[in-house]
Amino acid sequence: MSATVLDKAWLRARARAHNLHALGVTTVEQLDAALPPPLRPSTLSSTMRSVVVVVRGGYRGLAWARHVPTKHFWAGRILKEVDDALGDLAADLERAGHAALPVLAMALDYAARNPTDLTPLGQGTYLARVAAVLAGLGTLGLNEMLLTPQWGPRCFVGAVLTELELEPDAPLATELCPGLEACGRCAAICPEQAIPLRQPAGASLAEVRHLDCVACARATQPYGPATMARHLTAALDRDSPDERWRLAKDLTTGELWQQVTMHKEGAFTACQECAQVCPVGADYAAIQRSPHRQADLPDGVQHRRGDGWVEVQWVGPQWRWPSPAPEREGLPPLTWMQPQR
Ligand code: SF4
Ligand code: SF4
């Protein structure tokens, strides 16, 4: 088969046809250099040359809404649509004669990665988010989310590797996130205090940017893989058959069934608080029209300064997942939930 000559204009047109909203390109070499060894794209395939990164904006209606399960469910559906669109884009490249490999957001390799790779909010894998930064689609915020000029962090990101050599895009010249000292809204609202609340005065964003991935997973994945493992462990460890039956009939089993059969990708998107309050993005003024969003952080963010430090006063969210999974004593540590980055 003779290979079609492709360029980024062609790829962007195909991406639009698949309901993806932005596309950029970086190289496998650049992305390898920016990631820790287990997350490098060359571990997936040694023959790919370019990384095509795509972004899909969320619905303003989701950011406006207050019903947590609805927001949780539909964020998961958008994530599924992104994964489907990555497959369509890879098929376009293959039809044009170029090998392509979609890097699915939800396909976790438990030997090398774990569900913390999808924190915060299930926006996309760390690989895809860093690729998006290199491809000029945005920059990483204080909470390690991809912030874009159009949707701030209220978007989802995915990637396709291809053997096709494409001209890489340039990263943005400046950070979009002003950092903890000048903003800190995400840190003030995070229910798990997973985002830095304190920093030395004047420290750069690069020095402070961080996410406690395991803490974030408690809120974003309340009935995700970790809860499944803990619930099964708790049930199987019981000596008494009556106690095993009691745990099997616990409502946690029903919640887990709902996640597996209905929510699926939504198992990673239960908390969206940090994204909703982030002022970056052309959509933010519209987001703020919602009375629910205006009620976030009603007094703004209070910064305390002293002894060379700046601290954001934690406020927390207005509401969160209605019935968090119960913590049971005596469960073994989930070492596969340790952060990978
Ligand atoms: S606000 Fe929610 S999604 Fe964001 S970092 Fe905190 S727990 Fe994770
Ligand atoms: S809320 Fe503020 S500090 Fe947090 S990521 Fe957005 S711009 Fe950065």
General description of the model:
This protein has helices at residues 8-17, 28-34, 60-64, 68-95, 126-134, 185-189, 205-208, 213-220, 225-237, 241-248, 251-263, 273-277, 284-287, 291-294, and strands spanning 22-27, 50-57, 100-103, 139-140, 146-147, 155-162, 198-200, 303-306, 309-312. Helix 9 runs antiparallel to helix 10. The chain folds into two domains: 8-162, no CATH class; 185-337, no CATH class. The protein is globular. It contains 14 helices and nine strands. Helices cover 36% and strands 12% of the residues. The chain starts with 7 loop residues before the first helix and ends in a 29-residue tail after the last strand. The strands form three sheets. A four-stranded antiparallel beta sheet has the order 1-2-6-3, sandwiched between helices. Strands 7-9-8 form a three-stranded antiparallel beta sheet. The chain has a two-stranded antiparallel sheet with strand order 4-5. The protein is an alpha+beta fold. 44% of the residues are buried. Bound molecules: iron/sulfur cluster (2 copies).
Task: Please name the defining characteristics of this protein.
2 domains, 4-stranded antiparallel beta sheet, single chain, globular, 14 helices, alpha+beta, 36% helix
